[in-house]
Amino acid sequence: MDRPTMRVWIIFLLCLAGQAFAASITEEQPILDEPVVEEEPIMEEDEVMPEGGANPVQVETGEFDEAIEIIEEDVNAENPCLNHHCKKGKVCEVDEENTPMCVCQDPTSCPASVGEFEHVSCRHRTHYSKTGFNHLYIPRPFGKCPWPFFSFYVIMSDFCICVSQVCATDNTTYDSSCHFFAHKCSLEGTKKGHKLHLDYIGPCKFIEPCLDAELNEFPLRMRDWLKNVLVTLYERDEENNLLTEKQKLRVKKIYENEKRLQAGDHSLDLLAHDFEKNYNMYIFPVHWQFGQLDQHPIDGFLSHTELAPLRAPLIPMEHCTTRFFEQCDSDSDKYIALEEWAKCFGIKDQDVDKDLVI
Ligand SMILES: *[C@@H]1O[C@H](CO)[C@@H](O)[C@H](O)[C@H]1NC(C)=O
């Protein structure tokens, strides 16, 4: 397997571009109520990320939101569609009575997913190369691609790439999430459409089976990555918008600890050894990531949807992602509780602390 080497520390940023787009996102009830039983890893519907949140480890799942259908009518507006928002995959049109309604979007009307962006410091690419936990994610404003691209900021080599393609649960690559949602809309009402979800960012690819040994290494590597993400955010937090004061206080202790294992290309033995020796440094990063994901609602449980921002970019890079999170849900209730999450990362029961989820 092509295990990511840890030679290059890369940070990338996933964000959805466009405030207008973000502004159109609003929460609603999930379409799916029942637990999803497909074999394919799925990304459930109905997810919205907090705007401007400084979470490096997630993509804004506005991109994955399939359930928006907000109707705000303004009778005075000349164009009835102006204030008539449609869920993803639909656009507003007026009928003969000038009444706005949402109809399936024509995929050809989706923003072009090729071309150069002169106004962003990102280069257009359809593929992002071998990555994984040797890549750190960093939040805005380090790179921004126009919607419907996801931007990946690679910090060590200081470049940013834009990726528009997405892979859906039918293992079909769509030019962008816009194209995907337009297609899904055309299947509305069918079982096939109901079961179709975005799975991950990037073109569909062959994902190697995750071997048991690799699964065991996964938390080691992810834990180290989480810690390094936090430390990097701390270092780069010049404008004080990456971490909150409370978070900074916690990370400061890690950052200033001389015994801290620096980010780098470490063997699994060293990672394991460091976890034993510097166990305390890993407690907060694990809690912090949970808090970043547990937003809709904030209830101490991660749904499939809440997990999506972390899974979607990670799946094509880290082939154990799906298995790891499945296993994390040790009681198989489709939700990962804080206790389950902490356990997955080797945090002892007595160190699981709700108050650290800040
Ligand atoms: C999904 O598609 C990719 C690319 O076409 C292919 O390599 C891979 O084997 C497919 N995976 C499955 C599970 O069919």
Describe the structure.
Among the domains are: 116-201, Wheat Germ Agglutinin (Isolectin 2), domain 1 (2-Layer Sandwich), CATH 3.30.60; 212-356, Recoverin, domain 1 (Orthogonal Bundle), CATH 1.10.238. It is built from 10 helices and 12 strands. It has helices spanning 19-23, 177-186, 191-195, 212-236, 245-256, 268-277, 280-293, 304-314, 321-328, 338-344, and strands at residues 10-12, 90-94, 100-104, 122-124, 135-137, 150-154, 159-163, 166-168, 173-174, 198-201, 301-302, 336-337. Helix 4 crosses helix 5. The longest helix is centred in the middle third of the chain and has 25 residues, at 212-236. The two termini are 37 Å apart. The structure holds 2-acetamido-2-deoxy-beta-D-glucopyranose. 2-acetamido-2-deoxy-beta-D-glucopyranose (NAG) binds next to loops.
